[in-house]
Amino acid sequence: MAPKRKRGARAESARTSMRNMAAANHLQSLKEEASCSICLEYFTDPVFVECGHTFCLSCITRCWGALQTDFACPQCRKTSQNKTLRPNIQMANVVEIAKQLQVSIATPQKENLCREHEENLKMFCEDDQEPICVVCSVSRNHKPHTVLPILEAVQEYKEKFQRCLDPLKKKLEDILELHQKEEMKLKQLEAKFKRQRERIANEFEKLKQFLEKENSCYLKNLEEEENNNLQSIKETVTKLEEQESDLRSQITEIESKCKQQDVELLKDVKSTLSRYENMKAQVESYGTFKRKEEKIEEEEEVDLQIKIIKSLECTNQGLRVQKPQLQYTKKTLKSQIDL
């Protein structure tokens, strides 16, 4: 009986080999449909894009990179405005089937034969959790065990595996959705801080331009004020030189008068004293003028500081830049100078 079993096994092996060759051709076609056009491998976490084509999640994410809009399909080049990725669960199932077929075809035929009896493994022992041949199923070792036909066992365990897969795929779908939301948050946050940086740079550029303009204006006013003050001082110097000459003449006249004899000294006393009083009034008016001029200069300095402060306050309101601690008011500055 043993030689007959061996011949039968070889014939069955030949038929199986032919079937496997035909299956390999079909598997190649199936693999092409279950492969990503970007990485050319079986899909990993397959997802739909808006045009309907399917890609690996990691491949399409890497392909689109940091795009914000105009997401082009790598296969048909059709663009969409939104980065919408939906899990392709059916394709994931097809990939698993293709992988299983590839493994079953690539597995040497001897692994599908019973090592002891060289018969096809057509039964499944649930107690030992292993495939067995028909001869093993009626042997002493397996007779008291629960034995099922291999196809029935395959169907039963497929259903068990499917029950395991469903929650896992649901979890994967949730994670993909969360991943997409977090990526969107990341891009929105990057865009937000980019806008803030641009706005701050723009505001400080406006402030810089404003301060340069104000600086130019104040320097021009200062130059005009300098010219006016220089002219005023020159006029004052001229007047002082005239008064100096008059004072010297007056002093010389009075000194000469003091040296005269009694009667001669008393001549023209009234006119001499009158000229003296006029000269004295001019000198006193100069002192008053000098103090007033100093006071005006101090007030002009205060006014200049107040103008600068108000300009900065206006700038702060217009440019929304945090205003400095402006502690001095016009009254405070004046009181400090009066001290």
UniProtKB/TrEMBL annotation:
Domain (RING-type): give its ranges.
36-77
UniProt key word Coiled coil = yes
Reading the lineage from the top rank, the first entry is Eukaryota
Coiled-coil ranges per the record?
Answer: 169-257
Which segments constitute the B box-type domain?
Answer: 109-150
Q: Which UniProt keywords apply?
A: Coiled coil, Metal-binding, Zinc, Zinc-finger
Kindly provide the name given to this protein in its UniProt entry: Uncharacterized protein
User: Organism, per UniProt?
Assistant: Pleurodeles waltl
> SUPFAM superfamilies, from UniProt?
B-box zinc-binding domain, RING/U-box
Q: Does the keyword Membrane apply?
A: no
Entry's Gene Ontology molecular function annotations: zinc ion binding
